[in-house]
Specification:
By secondary structure, the protein is of the alpha+beta class. The protein contains four helices and five strands; from the N terminus they run E-E-E-E-H-E-H-H-H. The chain is 37% helix and 20% strand. The strands form two sheets. The chain has a three-stranded antiparallel sheet, sandwiched between helices. The protein has a two-stranded antiparallel sheet with strand order 2-3. The chain is globular, with a radius of gyration of 18 Å.
């Protein structure tokens, strides 16, 4: 299941009773699993997506980032997304080059002809 870092667009919290009772807290961003309820609240402009996360991301882990950043929410969010964002690169994986993909492959095949 896809996990998201979301925040409410007001001073209210949301509870997804149909999906493990997960909470979107009023006072800070929250890690939630994507569900029909979450998508409905995004569509109603009650939730804002801050980022898509890896499977191992948890709300408890995000709370630790908030505490370690002295409750600087911008720092906590950016640090958490750097560590757990779906775009985050594992340290032991080789980094992919910026070049590549279909266009590069097409250019390479043109050179051989």
């Amino acid at each position: 299941m896809i996990k998201l870092l979301v925040e409410t667009k007001g001073a209210f919290q949301l509870q997804d009773l149909g999906h493990k009772g997960q909470l979107a807290w009023a006072h800070r961003p929250s890690v939630v699993e994507n569900s029909n309820f979450i998508q409905d609240r995004i569509g109603r402009s009650q939730l804002r997506i801050l980022g898509e996360l890896k499977d191992e991301a948890t709300d408890g882990e995000f709370e630790k980032f908030v505490t370690e950043s002295d409750k600087d929410m911008a720092l906590a969010v950016s640090s958490f997304l750097e560590a757990y964002g779906s775009e985050a690169v594992e340290e032991d994986e080789p980094k992919k080059s910026a070049r590549g993909g279909r266009k590069s492959a097409a250019r390479d095949s043109d050179k051989t002809e």
